[in-house]
Amino acid sequence: MAPITIDEEAKRSANLRVLQRSDSSIIDIVGSATHVVLYEFDGVSQQWVKRNVEGSLFVAKRTASPRFKIVVMNRNSKDNLEIPLASTFQMQVREPYLIFRLEQGKESNGQKISGIWFHDGKEREAISEILQRVVKSLSHADEETKKHAGRIAQTTEVSQSVPKKGTPVNKSEAAASLIAALRIGSSSESTSEQEQQVSTPKQQPQEATAPVQNMVLDKKSLQLSLMSLLQDERFLDLIHAQYLKVAQTRAKANQDGSPKK
Fold first, then answer.
1. Whole-Å CA distances, 236 to 107, 121, 185, 202, 230
2. CB count, 10 Å around CB of 136?
3. How many other CB atoms are there within 10 angstroms of residue 44's CB atom?
4. Based on C-alpha coordinates, what's the Rg of the chain?
5. Helix and strand tally (H, E) in the chain?
6. In what helix (H) or strand (E) does residue 247 lie, and over which residues does it extend?
């Protein structure tokens, strides 16, 4: 009679369904061991004490936090062992155990040293390598999260200087801001005087505002400002003066660069 072979993929799928019954957030099994036993180190007797937990071990991947955890399907009771994995998870292999620390509140200074005994030493080594990769990936994810938070903080600081959509924009300030940002050619005394006429309305009290040249307009505010300023003769005079200056400069440059007869 031919020996019965078990499809490993079918076995894995069956184990995944069992895990999902108790935790619907589990989406994959990244590693497993056939049989393990949980031990705890007794600091008083300085010996390893066997706990009432033994069975198959799984390293499960989840859609929620924690993204990974160790699950031991306990054959001795309905209470399975679940160990959440984080970037701070510490472990080491000391035959025949995979040793790690478990958070236990105020007991034993908040931590207990635990060890998982593996029936198969090769499975212990394989699980150790898998856990190292998981912890490394979690550390990288934490670093990226911190960088992203820093970029958001910088963006927030910049956005505070940009007028919000719908915020009224002072027409004279917008004119001076646009001229300062889009200035064509070099500045002159006449241009500065015209800018001052536009940026300082007559008989209007000065307000404690940020310097005009530091004003930053968003796209909508720029559109509204241009539509409004096109009706302002002083603004058109200023733009026209700049245009004439550029035209004259180009004409002079063409004359200087033309071949002499």
1. 78, 84, 17, 18, 7
2. 11
3. 5
4. 36
5. 6, 7
6. helix 233-257
Match 């300030």 to its residue by tokens. 173
Task: Name which of 241, 248, 234, 253 is nearest 183 in CA terms.
Answer: 241
Contact present, 44 and 53 (Cβ < 8 Å): no
pTM for this entry: 0.56
Residue 227: exposed, middle, or buried by beta-carbon count in 10 A (0-12, 13-18, 19+)?
A: exposed
124-146 pLDDT, tens digit each: 999 999 999 999 999 999 898 88
Helix (H/G/I), strand (E/B), else coil: 89:
coil
Nearest residue to 89 via CA among 54, 127, 36, 42? 127
What local confidence, expressed as pLDDT, does residue 246 receive? 86
Residue 184 has what pLDDT? 47
DSSP letter at 4 equals P
- pLDDT tens for each residue of 69-83: 999 999 999 999 999
Backbone angles phi, psi at 176, to 5 degrees: -65, -35
The confidence score (pLDDT) of residue 199 equals 46
* Edge-first strand listing for the sheet containing 47-62: 81-85, 68-74, 47-62, 26-42, 111-118, 97-103, 91-94
